[in-house]
Amino acid sequence: MVLEVKGRVEAVEGNQQKLEVKLLLLGANSVGKSALTVRFLTRRFISEYGDIESVNSRVERIHGQEVCFNVWDSLYTQDCEKIPSVSDKQLQWADGIILVYSICDHQSFDVVRQQLQHIRRCRKSIPVVIVANKRDLWRHRSVSDEEGCLLAQSQSCSFFEVSAAETFHGVLLVFHHLFDLIRESRVLRKSSAGMQGIVRSMSAVFWKKRAE
Ligand SMILES: Nc1nc2c(ncn2[C@@H]2O[C@H](COP(=O)(O)OP(=O)(O)OP(=O)(O)O)[C@@H](O)[C@H]2O)c(=O)[nH]1
Ligand SMILES: [Mg+2]
């Protein structure tokens, strides 16, 4: 069951704008999507999380600005027909995506690769961060950090290796980095919409003059 939260609002409180971002966590089973989410939301690692899909929020102040993070911790459907297990609803909802795999599970890396291909087909320029989780289990590593890095580079994503079990700060860095990417992409969208407006008005003037 998905607990829905309020839609995107940029509320104005006093003179301050409150930014709202929607982050979606995807990846195979048991890679640590819930562990990363709970770490970010509560700073805690509680080891067992159950299989509940949910959207939860946390408000933070970043560079003096209030930011509301809405985090959708998804479930991976094992139905082969549905691979890559990313719904249109999820893709339309999200402002940014965290793709998680476990460094001890090469299959989970393959799932991330498939999900990323699907995401790039549907939403070419959405900000994506790839997270290699369970770094503390490096003795059982089956995915090298070069593999993760190369995949990220080839699809214009960022890449982090973390351990939800070990540290809060590494996890915080991932969420803050994705927030920065989303903010940059919004600025870019606004300025390119502005440029398009200028080009449209200039060409209207040009065609009017030619017609005279
Ligand atoms: N050692 C270690 N274990 C982790 C780490 N992150 C998660 N785990 C463990 O991995 C198991 C699965 O973690 P979850 O967060 O439930 O994984 P998930 O991706 O949400 O799994 P599903 O919701 O079932 O798809 C749990 O037993 C966690 O305690 C980590 O960084 N290191
Ligand atoms: Mg989970």
From TrEMBL:
Reactions mediated catalytically: GTP + H2O = GDP + phosphate + H(+)
EC number: 3.6.5.2
Keyword Hydrolase included in the entry's annotation: yes
One annotated GO molecular function: G protein activity
Alphabetical UniProt keywords: GTP-binding, Hydrolase, Nucleotide-binding
Family: Belongs to the small GTPase superfamily. Ras family.
NCBIfam families assigned to the protein according to its UniProt record, in alphabetical order: small_GTP
Name under which the protein is recorded: small monomeric GTPase
Source organism per UniProt: Xyrichtys novacula
Lineage: Eukaryota, Metazoa, Chordata, Craniata, Vertebrata
